[in-house]
Design brief:
heterodimer, A: 164 residues, alpha+beta, DNA polymerase, domain 1, 2 domains, 5-stranded mixed beta sheet, 5 strands, 30% helix, globular, B: 333 residues, Uridine Diphospho-n-acetylenolpyruvylglucosamine Reductase, domain 2, Uridine Diphospho-n-acetylenolpyruvylglucosamine Reductase, domain 3, 5-stranded antiparallel beta sheet, 12 strands, 21% strand
Chain lengths: 164, 333
């Protein structure tokens, strides 16, 4: 029943044998050991499992792993390079947008997808992009501030590209 | 929640998909975005033996415009692509507003228009995990003989909560449906049945392949309004799509469609007729809204009470028509 699948995650190629009913989230966590992407509601309402596929914020809990062949997948593990966090991650820390941290990977990936597509989003555009995510401890005001601040240094030459 | 076991089929062409659909018939499901199907499979309310993925089939991924004054949208086109398409926004405002109101950006990035048209019906007692449902007797929808939502009912009353459907009906869209060796073109308003279980006219082996939207003659206006608990994620508590066309003499056509309050979208013919007869004035809008109230044969207990649904319908009709009146006023200036 298992099918051999080659996945490109954070620029690395993986070959895994997966059952058709495994979601991308299952494979990332259980087969590839990439635990940064979290499991939440499982039905697409909380956003903690968000990864970026071909530039778009996608819910890995509702994506079959077999549908991901040949696509560029980026997870939270792939946006920082050794010793240096991604500007969105830095901004979340500096602006107190993290408490327990469970929702952070999903929200950071959502914010990154937004800023890659639209480096200077309006408040409404940020709200629209973040509407599919949930934070149950710090609230969304700090998160909004963090995303807004992360959007600003674009002019200072900082890049939102993976690993930079 | 984990997915149940199934066999996964990935055809590369429309022809191959239709062949597989015929072969597996009622024991299969078509997968495009997966945001509705996979959720219901996780809940265990749908248990197909095979899943046919139509994601990425070239014939189903395009938006074509201009031919015979029609815009044709492939069933696999994502809601994000439609939301960001300036042609759709310009020609079909109600449809674009409806697409943009669906769930969240994440879900719109994944979900297909074909999937939203076929969106499974919803009920408080049906869209729940197996563990939750096991605490009660099986209902009509899950193979039993009772309705938990409306006590004593002999049928299922699950709600059609698609946001795009009212807009497509208001804009007089047609839905192209194919099975092996056969093609049907069904007006959107005839595509739905007032039944919580078999809520579309799709037969086993058939699938939605495209949507055809007539482009009109530039003398029409449309809008869409959705009311929900939260602006993001939530399904509608009620929604309305309104389309209105004018000619030299006055209002020549009106379509008002209310969604998410019953098993099928409700066309408000009497309210629409009134606007055609007496024109679009503040007074006629008030009156049409009053008529609409009694035109929806709503039932209590499905998420909200019948009284609330009637009131909501009245408010939505008034808001939608007022918005259109304002839009027409603006274009005249």
């Amino acid at each position: 029943m298992k099918k051999l699948l080659s996945l490109t995650v954070n620029g690395d190629m993986y070959e895994v044998a997966v059952s058709p009913w495994k979601t991308l989230l299952d494979v990332l966590r259980d087969d590839l050991g990439l635990m940064g992407t979290k499991r939440g509601c499982g039905i697409g309402t909380c956003g903690v499992c968000t990864v970026i596929i071909d530039g778009k914020a996608i819910l890995s809990c509702l994506t079959l792993a077999l549908e991901c062949e040949g696509k560029a997948i980026t997870t939270i593990e792939g946006i920082s390079s050794e010793g240096s966090l991604h500007p969105v991650q830095k901004s979340f820390i500096e602006n107190g947008a993290i408490q327990c941290g469970y929702c952070s990977p999903g929200i950071i990936m959502t914010a990154k997808a937004l800023l890659d597509e639209n480096p200077r989003p309006s408040d409404d555009e940020i709200k629209e992009a973040l509407a599919g995510t949930f934070c149950r401890c710090t609230g969304h005001v700090k998160i909004m501030e963090a995303v807004k601040k992360a959007a600003q240094p674009a002019g200072e030459g900082e890049s939102h590209a993976p690993g930079k | 929640m984990r997915l149940p076991r199934f066999e996964f089929l990935k055809p590369v062409s429309l022809e191959e998909s239709l062949g597989l659909l015929e072969k597996y018939g009622g024991k299969t499901r078509v997968l495009a975005g997966g945001t509705d199907l996979l959720v219901n499979m996780k809940y265990g309310v749908l248990r197909p033996e095979t899943v046919i993925s139509i994601k990425g089939i070239p014939d189903l991924c395009s938006i074509l415009s201009g031919r015979d004054r029609q815009t044709i949208i492939g069933a696999s086109v994502s809601l994000s692509e439609l939301a960001g398409n300036s042609l759709i926004a310009g020609k079909f405002p109600a449809f674009q507003l409806a697409v943009r109101s669906v769930a969240s950006k994440h879900i719109r990035n994944m979900a297909s228009i074909g999937g939203n048209i076929c969106l499974d019906t919803r009920c408080w007692y049906y869209n729940q995990s197996k563990l939750w449902r096991d605490a009660r007797e099986l209902c009509h929808r899950t193979g039993g003989k009772v309705c938990h939502a409306i006590k004593g009912s002999t049928r299922c009353h699950a709600i059609n909560s698609s946001d795009t459907v009212p807009a497509l009906i208001a804009l007089d869209a047609k839905i192209e449906v194919m099975k092996k060796g056969q093609k049907r073109l069904i007006p959107a308003k005839e595509f739905y049945r007032d039944d919580g279980i078999r809520h579309t006219v799709l037969e086993p082996g058939e699938m939605v392949t495209s949507i055809q939207l007539p482009e009109g003659n530039g003398n029409s206006q449309s809008t869409f309004i959705k009311v929900s608990m939260r602006k993001g994620i939530d399904f509608a508590t009620g929604s309305i799509a309104a389309a209105l066309s004018v000619n030299g003499k006055g209002v020549s056509g009106v379509r008002l469609v209310v969604g998410s309050i019953a098993s099928a979208p409700a066309l408000l013919d009497k309210a629409s007729q009134l606007i055609i007869e007496s024109g679009l004035t503040e007074k006629s809008i008030e009156k049409a809204a009053e008529i609409a109230r009694s035109e929806v044969g709503t039932l209590t207990n499905l998420f909200t009470t019948a009284g609330y649904k009637r009131h909501l319908t009245q408010v939505l009709v008034k808001r939608a028509l007022s918005e259109i009146k304002e839009k027409i006023g603006r274009t005249k200036k």
